[in-house]
Specification:
15 strands; 4-stranded antiparallel sheet; 7-stranded antiparallel sheet
């Protein structure tokens, strides 16, 4: 069992995030990276831009991470024993590219209510300041803040949603080794810079693990049951993948990504690049 300690829970509740937490071995992280790069090689456009969502539905290695018992123990510490997997996202920053993530709050656009959910960010490569690691504004999760929508192609967010005037002197870097993870409260303000290193930075984000009492208010999410029982039945349940990139699983993933696009762009004046 790898449940959070009372001190770790206190840190999470007070600061809005917790890191680093050991999740995978370096070998498991490398195996996941290799499977991602196999998909990129065999189907070059399949996980690019808006294709980066829900890759766990076509990748057994990423599926195994999503259902990893060590990760689920930690999640259970926060949201309880009945756990659904809502969706996942790959954040890949190639070396010396301009991709960044502006400061934002996930809860502003994701439509999941109440906020009995947590995002898990798993480093499949080392993640540090030079290659664009996560940056957190501690204690910024107490309310929802105003966002501007900038639709910048270099911004890896759908709308380029941006919180202005974030105090940089209060920002904390979240540096992780491959196989480690961080936990994010739905309302924590976070972002990341560009990759100035000579290797890729790959983050696999379970966004999010939700309690079974959580509804989708902006559209539809299908889910997987990760642990416990679903007593509410608010979402359609879908199966786990056992094989890499089957036609059936690609079709399912594409359908789920269409649902996500409707949620992410709900009420938007235009559609972005992701």
């Amino acid at each position: 069992m790898t449940y959070l300690t009372s001190n770790q829970l206190k840190q999470y509740n007070e600061n809005g995030y917790l890191a680093p937490i050991d999740a995978l071995s370096k070998q498991e992280a490398l195996a996941a990276r290799e499977e991602i790069e196999q998909i990129e090689k065999e189907m070059p456009n399949e996980i690019d831009k808006s294709g980066r969502y829900n890759v766990h539905l076509i990748s057994p290695k990423l599926d195994s991470i999503v259902h990893n018992s060590k990760i689920l123990d930690v999640v259970e510490s926060i949201i309880g024993k009945n756990i659904l997997v809502c969706s996942t996202t790959l954040f890949i920053k190639n070396p010396n590219e301009k991709g960044f993530v502006s400061y934002h709050q996930d809860a502003k656009y994701i439509g999941l209510e109440p906020h009995n959910w947590v995002t898990v960010w798993v480093a499949l490569t080392d993640s540090f300041e030079k290659n664009g690691c996560m940056k957190m504004w501690p204690k910024s999760h107490l309310d929802i803040k105003d966002h501007n929508e900038k639709f910048d192609e270099a911004n890896l967010l759908t709308r380029g949603q941006t919180i202005e005037n974030v105090p940089e002197n209060e920002i904390e870097l979240v540096e992780l080794k491959a196989g480690q993870m961080s936990l994010h409260h739905p309302r924590i303000v976070h972002g990341s810079g560009i990759n100035k290193s000579n290797d890729r930075r790959i983050g696999f984000v379970i966004q999010s693990y939700i309690g079974t009492n959580v509804r989708q208010t902006l559209g539809k999410n299908s889910v997987q049951l990760a642990r416990g029982k679903d007593y509410f039945g608010y979402h359609e349940l879908i199966k786990r993948t056992k094989s890499l990139m089957t036609v059936e699983n690609i079709a399912l993933r594409n359908k789920e990504n269409e649902y996500l696009q409707e949620i992410f762009y709900n009420g938007a004046k235009q559609k972005g690049f992701y």
